[in-house]
Amino acid sequence: MKTVNVLRVTTCVKPDANVLMYVDNIRNDLQQYNIQCQFTERKKRTIKSLFTYTTTPVLIIQKNGIYLYISPEEKISYQESTMNIKFKEYKKSGVLPPLVQLIAENKNCTQHIADCTMGLGNDLMLMALTLPYAQFTAFEQNFYIHFTIKWSMHYYCNHINRDLKQAFDRIQFQYGSVVQSKAAYDVYYVDCLYHNTIEASNINHLVKFVENDEQNDDALLDYVTSKAGKVVLRAEYNSPIIKDYGFIMSVRRNTVTHYGYLINKQH
């Protein structure tokens, strides 16, 4: 069965007041999307039984977080992952992570930064934590990833690790591509390994649920490099994109991927 633009929402078996509050908030938020949504009572059903008659993804609001299950065995949500390690290193050394060094000259920047390839949100949160005065807009073309990360990050930062709340509050989540945006940004961050990241997270087939959401790196880069501002790139060291667009790369030893930047002539 084709499950494009259909979402189920349910809770843990014994929801508390906080879980039920998130049900209401998510129900209200879904009204802005052209999405078929089914709210169902969990009762005592197992996650496996939720997929007995349908493969439609189900968003489950639990006491320990919000998760999108795309099968009984596969789920996504916001996780600190490697972001936490990089942030701890920064707090210990005072040296900004390589990505952030290319975004801003120092932590006091007040720029408006577009994360053009949000994915699971780890680079986004790292930037927001290390640049406490900057504003962020996170673009994601896959509805399931956009909606899940937006709400699971909300839950995580407000109820699991409140140290992240101030960073989260400076992020706006945008469903769609920056190419359709009419806003201007000081910095555009593009991760051309986005789909590799998705595949490494075991949710590569989730992307295929949505029609026409394949990331077109050329169209994206053509757009952001036509705008006034800085473009920051994450790519493999031998990517033809580097030469094609004239990125200045910051080569790091013993790594396959590198960060680079260019400043548009209009800037």
Structural class: alpha/beta
Q: How many strands?
A: 12
Taking pLDDT < 50 over at least 5 consecutive residues as the criterion, the unreliable ranges are: none
Rg calculated over all Cα atoms:
19 Å
Beta content: 15-25%
> Helical region count?
11
Overall spatial form: globular
Mean pLDDT over the residues: 88
Determine the N-to-C terminus distance: 48 Å
Order of the strands making up the biggest sheet: 8-7-6-9-10-12-11
Say what oligomer this is. single chain
Helix content: 25-40%
Largest sheet: 7 strands, mixed
Order of helices and strands: EHEHEEEHHEHEHHEEHHHEHEE
Helices, strands, pairings?
Layout: E1 6-11, H1 17-29, E2 36-39, H2 47-50, E3 58-62, E4 65-69, E5 75-76, H3 81-93, H4 98-103, E6 112-115, H5 122-130, E7 135-140, H6 143-160, H7 165-168, E8 171-175, E9 187-191, H8 194-200, H9 204-207, H10 217-224, E10 230-236, H11 240-245, E11 248-250, E12 257-263
Parallel strand pairs: 1-2, 1-3, 6-7, 6-9, 7-8, 9-10
Antiparallel strand pairs: 3-4, 4-5, 10-12, 11-12
Helix pairs in contact: 3-5
For this entry, give a set of tags:
12 strands, 22% strand, 11 helices, 267 residues, 5-stranded mixed β-sheet
